[in-house]
Structures
1.
Amino acid sequence: MFDISMTGCSVLIEHRIPLREMYTLSINVFKNGNNHDFVVQARCIHASLVGDKGFKHGFEFSSPSQIAQRSIAALTDSSQSMRF
């Protein structure tokens, strides 16, 4: 994962995946001594080649659950984007 915000995230994937499709993202991030583990539906909205590392895909979250929203808020300090 490159970054995460309240509305979506960017993920490095070895191969390019189809755009405009819905995907289930299982996210597990350890931050400040806490594990943030949640599942969210997201639409792939863009992809770009990152050298020989793969493709950076941008995902837009689709109606995250309250659990996911709380985890995302904790990861982003409620309004900031978090870069990894």
Note: The domain at 3-78 is CATH 2.40.10.220 (Thrombin, subunit H).
2.
Amino acid sequence: MDFAEWSRSEINRLRATAMAHNAQADGLERALERYETEQKPKPAEQITSEDGPRFVAPTVRRGRKPGRGDKNGFALEKLKDVPSPGANMDSLFKAFQERFGVNYKRSSLRALLFHQKKLGNVTSRNGYYMLANSVLGGGHGAH
């Protein structure tokens, strides 16, 4: 095996290992967020009934966090002028964190891209994402 063959195989191995580590980190991050959410004490509310006062934890509805714009539209816009072979996850994730903050999760971007693929707006090949031909040809955009 010459240097070029070894280099290509080593690059592929390192990228595969990095993707596996990213997936593990994303899973651990989600578990940590669930853990921290469950650890927060919930305030009790006093209710007076025929049996006397009692305390009940209120149902908490979370409002939307203030966003910085449409993420689906931003993804499609980022992919609009990307040269072949497309944009990889790392470059898209960096752009999303610059736009939506460092707390934006890689798993959220993957879900967004998966959703856009189901809608037919985005295609992927070999880890690169690009707009689908229907979007490029002036078809219907993201919903």
Note: The CA atoms of residues 114 and 122 lie 8 Å apart.
3.
Amino acid sequence: MDEMQKEIVKEAVKQIPIKEIYDDGVKTSMKAAGDVVGLLPRAINAALEPLHKWVLQKEYNIDETKKILQNKLNGIDPDLITPPDSYIGVPVLQAISYSMDSDELRDMYANLLASSMISETKHFVHPSFVEIIKQLSPLDAKLLNLFRYNETYPLCDIQEVHTNGKLTPCYHSLFDFKDKNDAFTSKEHLYLTASLDNLIRLGVVLKNKEIFESNYDYTAFENNFMYLGLVKIKNDPQSKLRKIPARIELTLFGKELCRVIFKQV
């Protein structure tokens, strides 16, 4: 390891809060603060601390899940409550135990598990639903939640039309949530397109270029802060931005998923 690498490691470790969670052997190696060989285990242990904490709290998280289920199943006839199928219950319990820090993901798993424990609704719970939620970030989940209110939303791609007639794609899937835009912070708005792409990849929503919202004024996109930013950074000052209208909509699979993970049973 050269001197530059040593300095990088030292600076990185300074940024990591360290707790006394190591055994005496590791503590001994940490005492030599100037020794890079000692710094590396320290950095690794600090990076793995959240996982160590999860292992210690696993039983606690399962107990918390039981409390959440009591709330979800409150009012349900006890005679209708049945054990979930193991291929649903086991992966859900594992997943929810490390999703306690995300209200969105935790609630999705809890609704899914609750539905799988009611004889009248368990047949709606497909095992793929568990894997879908596992591939969602909290922002993805927050975005998907909006489709509870509307199954379609206006969307458009943006092209730059140059003076020579050449077309350059400059942004895809700019969309508007009508009265739900304030559901996201300014920072979250920057990552919504990536979340939307993930929902499309998972087959939950569909970008429909053949059908668009006929009752929506697509010129409203020109007031979108992302659109205004594109105007400022165009490659050709004389070019114009062209909006290609489309819409984003839940697939049939997505409707079944939302019915389970957002349902208040």
Note: The beta strands are 152-161, 167-175, 205-208, 240-250.
4.
Amino acid sequence: MSENVLYYPKPAPVYPGMYNPIQRKEELLHKLNKKGIRIFKPPVNIIELPDHYRIEMTAPGFKREDFYIKTNGCSLSIEAAKRQSGKTKDERYRFRSFHYDYIKRDIELPDNVDPDFGTAEYKNGVLNIYLYKNSYQAENRPGQIIVY
């Protein structure tokens, strides 16, 4: 019986306690929303430069129009929803390593960032967001960054 425990999708009772199978990396990076759509949380790099911060996020297969970036004080929320393409029903994948329909990432920003004058660009599958530094703390008001 202990041989089959590794293939259980949920924790299986094993003496003296509960056995939790190790999740794959892909299962840790996404979750399902209420409608059953996978929400992927892509990795992010935050780079501090002398006068601004650059935030890099990988998002392959999207278009610049798919992104919605909003700010509220020192928090940044990035969302992207891929529009359905005209794929045929005859497509069968033998191996599918990436498939992102919806991504969402929330980032807490440093206190000295100015979210009102941020810019963003999407190029070659990487989203770059540029936020400039300032000497005062950001106010808690909503804003939006347009992707070029």
Note: Residues 23 and 129 are 31 Å apart (CA to CA).
